[in-house]
Specification:
By secondary structure, the protein is α/β, with parallel strands linked by helices. The chain contains 17 helices and 7 strands. It has a single domain, classed as P-loop containing nucleotide triphosphate hydrolases (Rossmann fold, 3-Layer(aba) Sandwich), CATH 3.40.50. The longest helix has 17 residues. The structure holds 3'-phosphate-adenosine-5'-phosphate sulfate (PPS). One of its GO terms (molecular function) is sulfotransferase activity. Keywords: Transferase. Its EC number is 2.8.2.-.
């Protein structure tokens, strides 16, 4: 039986089985690779990414810790790049942002053959990832493609993650608070899918300081408070700044409106569709409020996570 497994997979299996492992609050086995935690399949996708991804100079990669505004960033980037398209055939009207921008490590997971990106032909190519920067960097092999990172207040990301799990697993309200408590404990230990959160954010912060031309570091809360400024910053970074005529015509506002939570949530495709992995599109859209964690985390939980983040971010320019 062993002989039927391709050589690279045999190598991966033996590497993965030698890594530190732990069980998360779901009972899923997670493995620690280059400082962060992944399930078996994601990790195999990451190994394929590091080994087999062939970056192109014009590639754009949007990166985030899960539940930090990925869907919004994907939509904004697609809308920016596709802004010459007429509203009636805009890709965001017929597909969810996750269908338009594949997650590299999940797309590259394969049990049998070489990872396949052949049917991915948009130009520039637009991908997403949840892996931390040091792990991604190895896959980019010094290419000069652009990476846009979006991060968010850890407490809102955590509550958003919890909501997403409850919705996907159809967990009823009574059990949901128990899930929040165990999720919180794992999260604080750093043992969470793609976690620890702080390693993730710090890796991209370092990347953006070292190479600001290729790594842009954005914040969800700033995108909420000053969307106009942040979208223009993104356009400039990606090398497609708004022209004076476009600004006068209201193109920036148009994109912001198209990608607003309210608008995306109400599109038919996002009300009824599912991703290739069977996740209801509607679960990607909830409140999008800053500080919603106050409605769910106890003051003790808040204090504990604040202390952790304060310690981890000490000596950096990052604040909660
Ligand atoms: N367009 C838009 N504008 C503002 N906010 C938005 C938007 N789309 C999704 N959201 C909110 O983002 C949260 C989901 O995070 P992600 O998109 O990162 O999820 S995922 O990792 O891709 O599954 C989740 O946040 P919470 O509402 O706090 O749970 C979504 O509501």
């Amino acid at each position: 039986m062993e002989n039927e497994i391709p050589k690279n997979l045999q190598r991966d299996i033996s590497l993965i089985s030698s890594l530190p492992c732990d069980i998360n609050f779901h009972g899923t086995k997670l493995f620690k690779y280059q400082g962060c935690w992944y399930d078996n399949k994601t990790l195999q996708g990451i190994l394929n990414l590091q080994r087999g991804f062939e970056p192109q100079e014009t590639d754009i990669i949007v990166a985030s810790f899960p539940k930090s505004g990925t869907t919004w960033l994907k939509a904004l980037t697609v809308a920016l790049l596709e802004r010459s398209k007429h509203s009636s055939n805009h890709p965001l009207l017929s597909d969810n942002p996750h269908g338009l921008v594949p997650v590299l490590e999940l797309r590259l997971y394969t049990e049998t053959s070489k990872p396949d990106l052949t049917n991915f032909s948009s130009s520039p190519r637009l991908f997403s990832t949840h892996v931390p920067f040091h792990t991604l960097q190895e896959a980019l092999k010094n290419s000069s493609c652009k990476v846009v990172y979006l991060w968010r207040n850890v407490k809102d990301a955590l509550v958003s993650l919890w909501y997403f799990d409850c919705a996907n697993l159809k967990i009823e309200e009574e059990r949901s608070m128990l899930l929040l408590e165990s999720m919180f404990e794992s999260f604080c230990k750093g043992v969470s899918y793609y976690g620890p959160f702080w390693e993730h954010v710090l890796s991209y912060r370092r990347g953006s300081l070292e190479d600001p031309e290729h790594v842009l570091f954005l914040r969800y809360e700033e995108l909420k408070t000053e969307p106009f400024v942040q979208l223009k910053k993104l356009a400039e970074f990606l090398g497609c700044p708004f022209t004076v005529e476009e600004e006068e015509r209201g193109s920036v506002e148009e994109i912001l409106d198209l990608c607003s939570l309210r608008n995306l949530k109400n599109l038919e495709v996002n009300k009824t569709g599912k991703t290739a992995r069977g996740v209801d599109h509607k679960n990607f859209f909830r409140k999008g409020e800053v500080g919603d964690f106050k409605n769910y985390l106890t003051p003790e939980m808040e204090k504990k996570i604040d202390m952790i983040i304060e310690e981890k971010f000490r000596g950096t320019d990052l604040k909660l």
